[in-house]
Structure formats: structure tokens, C-alpha cells
Amino acid sequence: MSNQNYLSFIHSYKYNEVTTEPKWKKKDRLSHKNGPHATVYMMNGDTYFGEWKDNLKHGHGTYNYYKTKRIYDGEWAFDKRCGEGMLSIREDDPLYDPKLNELKEEKKQKILWMAIMKY
Description:
With 119 residues, this protein is of the alpha+beta class. It has three helices and six strands. A six-stranded antiparallel sheet has the order 1-2-3-4-5-6, with no helix packed on it. Strand 4 (71-77) and strand 5 (80-90) form a beta hairpin.
């Protein structure tokens, strides 16, 4: 290989390397999620198990928030909570309100507080 062809090859390789999308984006695009799907693990530790449409959470699904330990189980539309669902939170969560937790006194439930929400 001549020196000029070699330099041209290096230049085009570097040029393509810079302009192509990151490998994780390419793999995510190729995995294009539609319909029911296995658990998907997010980079921040969150997990989602449920239905997808055009690579967006859409339909019924369960989302586990790693950092806050909240769990949302309900309806999704275009990657947003939408419709009816249940949000489960811990007693030490800032959203917790003991006045709304009727199960606490009856069943001595100390781990989760649950609320049925409509979005």
C-alpha cells in the first residue's frame, strides 16, 4: 500500500469514527422495542418491565426507581405515566403522608405506602 493511500485510509477511518453514533445508541436503535418486552435496565439503575411502542414505554408497565425506591405500576403513553396506576413509596419518602395511609393502622404496614393515581 502506498503511503498516500495509507494516509487516506487513516483519514477516512478517523473521519467516520468521529461522525458515527455511539455504539450503545446504535444497538438501542437496532433493538427497537415494540409490544411486550423483557425487563429493560437503565443506566441509572432503574428498571422497566412492560409494553413498548416505537421504542417508548406505552401500554401497561412497571417502573422501579432505583434511587428513590419508588415503584410505579400502571399505564404509560409515549414514555410518560398516563391513565391509572399505583405508585408505591417507602415511609421515609418525601411524598409519604400518614394521613392518607389507611392501611398503616389496620395492617401495620411499615414498608410501602400505596396510592392510586390518575395522570
